[in-house]
Amino acid sequence: MSTEEHPAEPAKERAGAAPRSLAESLRTRDDASLSALLRARPDLITPVPTDLTQLATRAGTRASVVRALERLDRFVLQTAEALAVAPEPATYDDLLALMAGDDRDPAVTGALPGALGTLREQALVWGADDRLRLVRTARELLAPSPQHPSPTGLGPTVAEATAGMSPGRIQEIVAAAGLPTTHDSVSAVTSLTGLFTDRTRMSALLDEVPADALEVLSRLVWGPPYGQVTADPAPRLRRLLDCGLLLPTAPGTVVLPREVALHLRAGRAHRETEPLPPAVEPAATHRPRMVDATAAGQAYTALATVEELLKDWDEGGPTVMRAGGLSVRDLKRTAVALDVTEPVAAFWVELAYAAGLLASDGEAEERYSATPAYDEWLERPAAERWARLAAAWLAATRTAGLVGGRDGKDRTLSALGPGLDRSAAPEVRHRVLALLGTLPEGASAAPDSVLARLHWERPLRGTQPPGTPAPGTRVPTDDLRTRLARWTLSEAESLGVTGRGALSSHGRALLGLPAAAAQDTEPSGPGDKLPAPKRHHPAAEIPRAPRSPAERAADASHAARLLAPLLPEPLDHVLLQADLTAVAPGPLRRPLADTLGVLADVESKGGATVYRFTPGSVRRALDAGRAAADLHAFLAAHSRTPVPQPLTYLIDDVARRHGHLRIGAASAYVRCDDDALLNEILADKRSAGLRLRRLAPTVLAAQADPATLLEGLRAMGFAPAAESAEGDVLITRADARRTPPRTAPEPVPEGPPVPDATLLGAAIRAVRAGDLASTTPRKTAPAAAPTGAGGLPRTGSAETLATMQAAVLTGETLWIGYVNAEGAATQRVIAPVRVEGGFVTAYDHTADEVRTYPLHRITGVAELADEQA
Fold first, then answer.
1. Residues 122 and 41: beta-carbon distance below 8 Å
2. Is residue 407 located within the same domain as residue 467?
3. Which of 215, 81, 212 lies closest to 138 in space, CA to CA?
């Protein structure tokens, strides 16, 4: 096999070196190859290993291998499974035969070098092409169970299945198969194995088997390979047992040998090998402008929904449950207020929380309220406000779709409560949207094709432990990644990242994807549908590298610039009508919307918002400090129609009665200059619950608190005003309640972050220096430089000092043992520069820097061999 066919094979392994372990294989790698390994498996440098032996040990641990296997795509995983059933060590030709079969599928042949290169890069496979070895831990993890150790449905080999069989029985099988008997079982098993692996002779043997017996083999060929037989098997089974095509493993149990199954499978380890990812199929294609306009409309609705949610909670939202989160009742109330379903309400609540606009206030009676960041957010342009929401959604690990489900302890998962973080959520969201980005501009994707692609890319992630997927398994419908993908498609549409199922231009910018090529097709008929686009190659490259915070901020800013021209321009006017309503024909500017929201109640929403003026809404504006004259001037300035007379009368009538009664804290009192009005209140039977009594001609005392007294008198038709201890009217504002400054919740990371170039360089230097210290031959004989626990050199203080001083003069490199202030013992390779005052200053090859060491902490010193110094 030429080196050009396998570019991923390490140079020294191609040259003929035969590493005896994974650690030795890692020593043949250059820095670029080690960097690729640590970038693909960042858990291997957390913390940084001391040398390559420790790196190899860590790469073979169960937790690390599970994490690596979960990130393999379907074809690479199938390659690992084939190596798990191949003889160890396997050759590349053995692997190719198992993957491509006898017909040598060209797609598999072309994709296999890349898959093997991925396994090598991630240190799951090591060795040259003539001695490929799968890491033992991976082999164990890929086994479905101890009883069925093959991940591809293959049974044990002939040698394994006959290990406990009597020599006489083995000779009988050999004779029945038409082979000459031998003098020992080993040669007999070898002869039988040779027959089963010889395609020509095996075909001749099967030609002699009755058709009904072959039907039995066909039921076992793709697994499971075990079957049950009676004490007196049928003739068709007897024939198979006699010639070894079925071998007994336990009383009443037989197995199809691996060699026989591979012959019946035409050499394939898998029923269906999948070298190429399934294509993401377009479902429909729309005009790109229509997609962007639809997405922009959804984005505007999203902003309005979040504002409405937090405005409803301005004076203090729902209380926080003892276990955290919203109660079911409060979530239902929120859904009714937003006019959406409960799952959708949970999404908007979680989105506001993820963006840092909503939090608990931390007080004794803990409630949810808007944060100070919400007020800052409201002052930003609409496109920038949307970009903040979308960026928070894209990176959040909290998953609103789980609300209402059950956790591991059978407790209900509540909105804003614990247990909603799923670390895979950001990756799935980004991946789903990136797959939409591979389609032509304006094309939406068939959801099933997106799910099939995701399952091909991560067949083990979020489903079952490694090794359990059966051959030919299709897309599961209830695993976590599938549910996350479905929620992503729905949430992206609600948020305005997509429009009509297609990725919008501002959604593409939010992901950092390049702009799509212009759609050069025109609609062929009425409507906005376009002809189906040309099918893209299913292996189209999609960016996978995680974006840095600076890049994500730049992407959000770019998305906001693209969205801004698509959003409707805010209006500065409304249309007042004689039925005490006002119609806003579009979005209103912030000051107008805020004031109108206090002065009137929203009656209906849609393309135009309808506000209704009521005595209660006018009184609310007066309570906020507005005078009647201010309200008249405001309406006249912002109405494109004359102010209706009924509305003028309503404002004047409420204002004339507003504040005539004053309520303060005694427990509470009512004072009024009109004693006749106080007499009317006392005479009213509805005031009995307030327990009022007259203290003076113009003052009534009550045993109810001021808030209750206010509500009671308003219910009786009066318009009282609250006053302070100084007698000033208290002005109430709807946005008075805010939490202390809060930070947005941090996403829960999925394992260690991918290291940057600086960290990778430092880690590789440290690992190589530590490996040099642990593997370099020592010149000093063991008797002269005995080693203690941990292999550290041991020399006397005088000898240590003399050796150091000599090394300063000669420039030699030394191997030392060193114990730090915490008592941790390490070995280092240093080049002494100066020795004075009980300290040695040296260049430390392990740390790749100049350091100073106290001589009393050096356990001993040894010179390195001349060829290594």
1. yes
2. yes
3. 81
Q: Is the CB of residue 763 less than 8 Å from the CB of residue 45?
A: yes
Pairwise CA distance, residues 456 & 123, whole Å: 22
pLDDT, the chain, mean: 83
**pLDDT of 784 over the 60 cut:** no
Residue for token pair 């009665």: 657
423/351 same-domain check: yes
* 106 Cβ contact partners less than 8 Å away, ≥ 6 residues apart: none
Judged on CB neighbours under 10 Å (0-12, 13-18, 19+), 725 is exposed
Task: Check if the beta carbon of residue 83 is closer than 8 Å to that of residue 127.
Answer: no
474 has pLDDT over 60: no
Residues 513, 601, single domain; the answer is no
- The predicted pLDDT at position 564 comes to 93
Alpha carbon 628 to its chain's center? 55
| Domain at 829, CATH number | 2.30.30
In this structure, are 388 and 425 located in the same domain?
Answer: yes
8 A C-beta contact, residue 439 and residue 536: yes
Does residue 386 sit within a domain? yes
Q: Assess contact for 476 and 482: CB atoms under 8 A.
A: yes
C-alpha–C-alpha distance, residues 414 and 352, integer Å: 15
Task: Label residue 781 by pLDDT band (50, 70, 90).
Answer: very low
Domains in the chain, number: 6
Which helix (H) or strand (E) is 761 found in, with range?
helix 757-775
Rounded Cα–Cα distance for residues 414 and 435 (Å): 31
Closest C-alpha among 649, 647, 600, 619 to residue 715: 619
Amino acid type, 21:
S
Q: Residue 714 has what pLDDT?
A: 81
The two tokens of residue 177 are 């198969």
User: What pLDDT is recorded for position 710?
Assistant: 82
Look at residues 107, 141, 175 and tell me which one is the last residue of a structural domain: 141
Domain boundary among 657, 678, 703: 657
Mean pLDDT over 687-700 rounds to: 82
pTM for this one? 0.76
**Rounded CA separation 655/660 (Å):** 9
State pLDDT tens for residues 699-712: 888 878 787 888 88
pLDDT tens for residues 526-558?
A: 334 434 433 333 333 444 445 677 888 899 999
Quick one: 300 and 185 in the same domain? no
Q: Is it the case that residue 50 has pLDDT exceeding 90? A: no
Contacts of residue 16, defined as CB under 8 A and 6 or more positions apart, other chains included, come to: 128
750 falls within a domain: no
Q: Tell me, yes or no, whether 245 and 343 share the same domain.
A: no
Average pLDDT over residues 740-752: 84
Structural domain for 853, as ranges: 778-863
